[in-house]
Every structure is written in structure tokens, then in C-alpha cells.
Amino acid sequence: MSFTRVLIANRGEIARRIQRGCRKLGLESVAVFSDADRDAPFVAEADHAVCIGGAAPSDSYLNVEAILEAARATGAGAVHPGYGFLSENAGFAAAVEAAGLVFIGPEPDAIARMGSKIEAKAAAEAAGVPVLPGYRGEDQSDARLLQEAEALGTPFLVKASAGGGGRGMRLVSDLGDAPEAIASARAEAQSAFGDPAVFLERYAPRARHVEVQVLGDTHGTVLHLGDRDCSLQRNHQKLIEEAPAADLPEAVRDRMRAAAVRLAQAIGYRSAGTVEYLYDPGRGEYYFLEMNTRLQVEHPVTEAITGIDLVEWQLRIARGEPLALTQGDVQFDGHAIEIRIAAENPAENFHPETGEITLWAPPADVRLDTGVECGSVVGHHYDSMIAKLIVHAPDRTGAIRRAITAIDAFAVGGVGLNLAYQRALLAHPDFAAFRHHTSGLPEMFPGGWTEPSADPRDMAFAAMALHLRLVPAGASPWESLGSWRLTAPAGQSGAAFYWDTTKDEPIRMYGSGSGLTAIQPDGQTITVESAVLTGCRLSGRIDGVPFSRIAYVVRAPSHWRVHLQTPAGMTATDLRTLEDQHLQRATGGSGVADLLSAPMPGAVAEVRVALGDRVKAGDTLVVLEAMKLLQSLPAPVAGVVTEIYCAPGDTVAGHAPLIKLDPEENT
Question: What InterPro entries does the annotation carry (predicted)?
Fold first, then answer.
């Protein structure tokens, strides 16, 4: 079972994480990459790299034969699947072993057994692990499922046996809706997993998601490495994870951990794995959900509180080494929180964001597992999660505070991220008091969430940062006089003008670094003495009191963007200079009311109109797939379809024209 070179069958941040584990043990790494990832950091940092196909996952990261051929060509002796893609594919694990390679993970049989929700729950029951009441029988007829649904009572869930991440899942609160829920869950399960089998399970409202990390070797030893809470979720996708699970009765915690070890022992589990539970605080009971037979996205929080490197031990176990520690050796220190950083816009229904990262300035002194850097391109082919921010502190309150501080110092340009939304979750009183649960986001933000914007005072600071970037302190008088010197009243220094792109009136800037004054459109005035922009920090004195803010000034195509640290977090303000404003007016702005364009790169999934169709404003014209999500693109105006520039299956660039309309007023 010895090997010296590991092929990593994955991409992005998890590929880089596994590379670090390989370097720690003196192992060489092999990166496999798609055409879209040719310039990605994980490719450049690998000891060897092989292109295995096109951007579509089916052509590359899901192409088993291409991956095995890359392993043969590079002389790799082992394959690490990471998470996602083929990590829980029993057929892939078996193919790796059949090729004479070491699969860094559990036995194929264990993957297959735990991959079936029905078989996994049967194994859990046999190991004495509590499961939710429900029906998991082989009879999949409509009649039997409806009969069992009536016996179970509402509310209950219809769940895909081979499912995960909420796909193939339907909540039934009225028995009359059961036939449609079963049919739609089956259809989605067949489409997503190639298996239409479903089961029924009692629904526990206000439940929490608690999981236990296990680690097993090839010599029969299984340990638990504590628990995690992953209850902050959107559409069954985790947002924030923490370890250990807080506000959990110690007796329940002990039973959860012991049950996870029993289940792993019962199936002869090796490598890292996670047993997931649903915890019902109202009943004080927990129930088995599933077992993930791979490394979890959230494994860093367990590493933070235990000091145990999970990737290192995956590699050691795959080499046949016994665990060098006992359960009593596993100690827990403090509290850790992980924030998933995704390229999406939560304020616009979590719309995926794509493009080139023009600014990447993460906070110092915290762990950041990331697959990108400045200059990286975030495309539409893969999941939107691009990084994970991990903090550790002596207690949960300190960890929350440190996570918020880290987000406040994180500046990113070119691609929108969900950092402000994650900050709002961390700062929410429900999270601090542990009132949140797996379906609690609507309770936390009943009116929806709105991204914070810079207040007038912060807007003035943003304009000052831009002014000092363009007219640095110590510039010559000719540079510092301002754009309108010749037309200023006699005896007054000239002013520079900066327009917020959402407003018509400018912010006026007078003076120099020794005394810089910003006048807002509403007349509010702020004067900063000794104002200076040094690197990424704006500083000076206001009424003799020193102040300092992080400020990054980045050029965008038609304006400047200032990333400013504020009391509400990091904000991004778009400003135009006088020259930008003139150019904007000369070109008439952007956007064509009668043209539907792609908001991002993607693949056309559906075209729902034909030439000559009459549509209303808001009607869905095209469905675009990007980052594994379907986006319905509405008609910008009412009118008649005159041109169609795309067809199902086409790959389109961001801002590419899709549908041309003749507006209703013209017809």
C-alpha cells in the first residue's frame, strides 16, 4: 500500500488543501484539470499536472477513464477524490483499486452501502443508532407509498434514496399533496442520481443539523473527533459550520459520538467520514440522517479544535498505518467557525457571480482555504463556493467576534461574494442565542435580506480615498487644484467632483491632505486633517481625533470602486470622476430595454419562446444554467420576439445577446 505520488481527482480549494497534506508527508501531487482551470492556482502548485478534458464536469472531473489514464501516465500510486464529483462514487473507488492504485477513502462496499439512504438507515438501526420514523421498504408502488404516508401522518418528507443536498426532497404538510410530491421527488431523483427510489420520513420542524467526525484505520480502530453544528442552511446547503456543537446536552452529545463510532465499526469503515444527525431540541432526541463517506467541506473546524490533520491521516491510513492515538488522546480546545465564501449575490436571490477577480485582499492571522487569487477567473461551470474562512477562539462568543472582524477586513473586487450576508448571519441575535435551525432563515430575515450600503459619512470617506489615490498627498499644486479651478469663485481653491453611480449630484472635494473637505450633495461636510492614503489604509484626524479605515481603490471599466471598511462591514462604493461622467453621458449609458442578454456566462437550458411570440414583461424567455443552478431570465419589456440568438445546449458569454424584442409601444 506504499505510494509516493498522489493524483488529486478534484479542483479548487480542496485540491490545494490535499496538496498541502501531501507536502507535509513528502509526497508528490498530481493535479488533473479541465480546460477552464488551466490557469488555476491548484494547477500551478502541483508537482505534476495533466489536462483531462473540457470545462463540463462530465468531460473532465467526472471522466473516470481520463483520470485513471492520467494516473498511469504520471506514475501516481494513489488517488484522493476530495469532496464532491466522484468522492462518493463506489464505482470510481472500485475502478481505482482495479487499476492497481490506492483509493484514499473507504472501501467501495462501504461507499455503496452508505450511499443508499435506505440501506444506510437499515445499517444504523442494526447498530443501535436512532432513526426517524418512516417507510424505507422495497415496495415503491404509489399505493404502498400513499398507504405508508397516511399511517405516518403529516408533516413528512419524501426523500430520494440516492439523494443529497436537498435534491429529490419534498415536504408534505397535507396528505392531498402526497401524490404530486412523490411523483416530483421521483422524477428529480431519477434525473439527478439515476435512481428513482424514494422513502418517507417524519419531518422534525425547528431541528438542528449535528454531525460527528469519525476516523478509522485498516486495523479495526475507529475514533470520533468530536461534533459539529451545521444548522445554518439555505435550501439544505450549509452556510456556516462550527465545532463543537453548542447548546447540546452532554448526555446527548456522548450518545451521538458513541453511536457514530458503533456505526463506523459495524461497516468496517476506514479513512475520514462523517455521521450526520437531526437533533430535535424540543424532544431532546437525535436521529440518524446519513453518513458521508469522504472528507467534509467543514473538516477544518474539527482540525482547529483537535489539532489533528485529517488529510494527513487520510494519507497515512491509506498507506496502511495504524492510528497513533487513542480516544483518550483526542482533546478539544476552544471553538471554531467556518464561513463558506461563495461567488453569488444574496441580495438578488443568490444570483451566481462570475468574472475575473481584480482584488483579493483576505484578512491576516486566520485560516483561509481558497481556490482563487487575484487574477483568477470565476466561471459558470462549477460550484460557486470559492473559499472557506476558518477562525478559532477560546469560546463561541470570541469565535463569532473574530469571524466578523475577519469578514470586515476582507476586500474582494471584480466578483461579488456572499461575505456581507454571512456577516449578517453571524451578527444575528438568533445565531448568538442559538435559536436558529435548519429551516430558520425566513425567521431571521422575514422581509428578506438587503445588503448594507455606505452611509453618507462613509461615502465621503470613499470619495476621499479615491481623491487621494488620484491626487496623492504631496502632489504638485497643478495636480491638487482640482478639475474646476478656473471656474471656482475668487479666493477659493478648486474642487474635484466625484459622482456616486446611483446619484445625479456629485460629492465635492476641496483642499489637500493637510485639510481635505468633502461636501455631500445634501450639504453635509466632513473635514479630515492630515488625510493620507498609505497602501490600503485611509487615515487622518477628525476634530483632532485620529481615525483609520481599510480602503482599496480599484479601477472598473467605466468607474472606480472603493472597498471601504465601515462599522457595518466592508462596503463597495462605485464612483465616477468628471471624465468618467462625461464618457457615460456621451455613450448614453449601458443596457438596451428591448434586448435580453445573459447576466453571466452559462449554458442555455431552455428557450421558451419562438419568433413572433407576444410576451409580457417578466415572462421567462430563456433558462440559463450556471454554477449548477438554473436561472430564469425574464422579458425586460412587453413585446414581440423578433430575433433569437441562442438555442438549447449553447454556451454563451456574459452579456451575450439572447432574445430581441419589438417593444409593445411600437406594435
Answer: ATP-grasp, BC-like_N, Biotin_BS, Biotin_carboxylase_complex, Biotin_carboxylation_dom, Biotin_COase_C, Biotin_lipoyl, CPAse_ATP-bd
Q: Are 315 and 27 in contact (CB under 8 A)?
A: yes
At 331, is the secondary structure helix, strand, or coil? coil
Task: Look at the chain and count its residues.
Answer: 667
Q: How many CB atoms lie within 10 A of CB 38?
A: 12
Q: What are phi and psi of 382, to 5 degrees?
A: -125, 180
pLDDT of 143: 94
- pTM value? 0.83
Measured CA to CA, the distance from residue 598 to residue 199 in angstroms comes to 39
Instruction: Write the CB contacts of 94 (distance below 8 Å, at least 6 apart in sequence).
Output: 108
3-class state of residue 451 by DSSP: coil
Q: Are strands 569-576 and 495-500 parallel, antiparallel or unpaired?
A: antiparallel
Neighbour tally for 149: CB within 10 Å: 21
Let me know: does 634 contact 618? Beta carbons within 8 Å.
Answer: yes
649-652: long-range contacts at Cβ-Cβ below 8 A with a sequence spacing of 24 or more?
649/603, 649/604, 650/603, 650/604, 651/601, 651/602, 651/603, 651/604, 652/598, 652/601, 652/602, 652/603, 652/604, 652/624
Rounded to 10 degrees, what is the CA torsion of 646, 648, 653, 655?
A: 50
Question: Mind listing the pLDDT tens digit for each residue in 374-393?
Answer: 999 999 899 999 999 999 99
Residues paired with 224 in a beta bridge = 214
CA 197-237-195 angle, to 5 degrees, is 15
Instruction: Check if 290 is active-site.
Output: yes
Query: Which residue's entry shows cell 445625479?
Result: 504
Write down the pLDDT at residue 423.
96
Total Cβ atoms within 10 A of residue 496: 24
Grid coordinates representing 87?
468522492
pLDDT at position 582: 77
Cα 134 from Cα 203, distance rounded (Å): 10
Q: What is the pLDDT of residues 306-351, one digit of tens each?
A: 999 999 999 999 999 999 999 999 999 999 999 999 999 998 888 8
Residue pLDDT, tens place only, 145-168: 999 999 999 999 999 988 776 788
Amino acid symbol at 196:
P
For residues 190-213, give the mean pLDDT: 92
168 φ, ψ to 5°?
75, 30
What is the reported pLDDT for 619?
Answer: 93
- pLDDT (0 to 100) of residue 501: 86
- pLDDT tens per residue, range 119-133: 999 999 999 999 999
How far apart, in whole angstroms, are the C-alpha atoms of residue 201 and residue 178? 13
pLDDT tens per residue across span 584-619: 766 554 445 688 988 877 889 999 999 999 999 889
Q: Which amino acid appears at position 262 of this protein? A: R
In sequence order, what are the residues at sequence separation of 6 or more whose Cβ sits closer than 8 angstroms to the Cβ of residue 68?
A: 95, 96, 99, 101
Cβ 642 vs Cβ 585: under 8 Å: no
The answer to whether the CB of 291 falls within 8 A of the CB of 114 is yes
179-213: burial string, b at 16+ Cβ within 10 Å, e else:
eebbeebbebbeeebebbbbbbbbbbeebbbbbbb
The rounded distance, in Å, linking the Cα atoms of 636 and 627 is 23
Catalytic residue among 13, 28, 88, 290: 290
Name the one residue in this structure whose C-alpha cell is 405516518: 152
